[in-house]
Amino acid sequence: MTASERVPDAGHPSVVAVVVAYNRKALLLESLAALRTQSAPLTAVIVVDNASDDDSAATALAFWPEIELVRLTRNTGGAGGFATGMAMAIARHDPDWVWVMDDDTIPTETALAELLVAVDQPGVVLAGSRVVWTDGSDHPMNTPRRNPFAKKEELREAAERGVTPVRSSSFVSMLVSAERVKEAGLPIADYFIWNDDFEFSTRMLRGGRGLFVPESVVVHKTKARANTDADPGARFFFEVRNKIWLMLFSHGLNPFEKAVYLGSTLLRWFRTFRSSRQRGFLFTQLRRGLVAGFRSRPRLNADALSDLGAVTEAVVKVEAPARRAA
């Protein structure tokens, strides 16, 4: 029996999985195969194809005709893809939870079931899996950030349940409350790539608790077991611009947290430059990112995704409560 046929019974949480795909057809099929055999039922699976040109969309439908395929006419980046997928999941299905991941994320069979066990307690709005590389070791790119403000009672209770309170989480297997998304808004599409999951998860967790669930395991099939300090090339522009946007405009972190995080960011940038073989090019991206970060701000998702028809309508509908509360 496939996941799409194992619809949750009444009284059980409904979950829609969202996979954002771009030109990684083989990995997308592997991810879908893993979703198809989850031990916990899925209400639906949505694949957001970010204008791939490698037949990812057609191949995915041929493999699993029951998936809901959202084909975008332009590449909106990971940030736009996750905003799109969450919006469509909530607008179409009104689920309890949305489970998001990239197309190079391969969940183990009980990954979702372990997340659902962990979030079955008051106040929890988000949970993330343990992310390993292909050799089974923890992936340094997706290390969870413990919540330094967690109270002793919360820490004790979490330890008894085998989980850890966190302050942020990664889109490489994140289970997030649909109600909380409607309250606080979708990922910011204009981030395009980098820092979008950090900004989104910290914003979600200003109004609830987040957990790291080590018993929920997914494999992140990146080309190398590298962390964010690895030489980023042209993507360093997004790292710099988005960090500036996060510090200036995001409500995810309080002022003290922003000061601490800024210090760690500057140290990380120093390490990146120190280990880079193209420092001149990185300096150019640093300058571009600083200019863009201070001279602009991210648009509303309704504007950034305004040309996408049904997607735009879903984004506006899902974010309406957050807009009214702002």
Largest sheet: 10 strands, mixed
The helicity comes to: 40-55%
* Tally of DSSP helical segments: 12
CATH level-1 class of the domain at 3-227: Alpha Beta
Average pLDDT figure: 92
Instruction: Please tell me the CATH architecture of the domain at 3-227 by its name.
Output: Alpha-Beta Complex
Structural class: alpha/beta
| Proportion of residues in β-strands | 15-25%
* Uncertain parts: 1-6
Rg calc: 19 Å
Short description:
It contains twelve helices and ten strands. By secondary structure, the protein is of the alpha/beta class.
Describe the structure.
The chain contains twelve helices and ten strands. The protein starts with 14 loop residues before the first strand and ends with a helix. It has a domain at 3-227: Spore Coat Polysaccharide Biosynthesis Protein SpsA, Chain A (Alpha-Beta Complex), CATH 3.90.550.60. Strands 1, 2, 3, 4, 5, 6, 7, 8, 9 and 10 form a ten-stranded mixed β-sheet that branches. Helix 1 (25-36) runs parallel beside helix 2 (56-63), helix 3 crosses helix 12 (310-325) and helix 8 (236-249) packs parallel to helix 10 (279-295). It is globular. It has helices at 25-36, 56-63, 77-93, 111-119, 152-161, 178-184, 196-204, 236-249, 255-275, 279-295, 301-304, 310-325, and strands at 15-21, 44-49, 68-71, 97-102, 105-107, 124-132, 145-146, 164-168, 174-177, 209-220. Mean pLDDT is 92; it is low at 1-6. The chain is of the alpha/beta class. It is an enzyme of class 2 (transferase). Keywords: Glycosyltransferase, Transferase. Pathway: Cell wall biogenesis; cell wall polysaccharide biosynthesis.
